[in-house]
Amino acid sequence: MLIVVDQVIENVLPPRLLGKLTGLNPIVILFSVMVGARVADFYGVITAVPIAATIKALLLTPSPKESLTPPELSPSTTA
């Protein structure tokens, strides 16, 4: 029974807590840690979640084209 509780604490809680802190899905966190471990061993595990959170932020940031003023407010249409 102690082994089951230990496995739950080790494998379920950290991804959920990191998910709440970073806004990432816990499955994305597990996947990024596995990929980080495969690519760069210990340092990959350490940097996997921050890299995943950075990629998410870059993908969700609007491009400069999307952040332009709407056509009805642009200077060319008001003149």
Summarize the structure.
With 79 residues, this protein is mainly α. It has helices at 2-11, 13-22, 26-60, 75-78.
Taken in chain order, the helices and strands follow as HHHH
Model regions low in confidence, pLDDT < 50 over at least 5 residues: none
Intertermini distance: 76 Å
Relative helix content: over 70%
Beta-strand portion reads under 5%
Describe the biggest sheet?
none
Structural overview:
The chain is an all-alpha fold. It has a domain at 18-61. Helices cover 75% and strands 0% of the residues. The chain has four helices and no strands. It has helices at 2-11, 13-22, 26-60, 75-78. Helix 2 (13-22) packs parallel to helix 3. The chain starts with a helix and ends with a helix. The mean pLDDT is 79.
Write the layout of secondary structure elements.
Layout: H1 2-11, H2 13-22, H3 26-60, H4 75-78
Q: Which key terms come to mind for this protein?
A:
mainly alpha, elongated
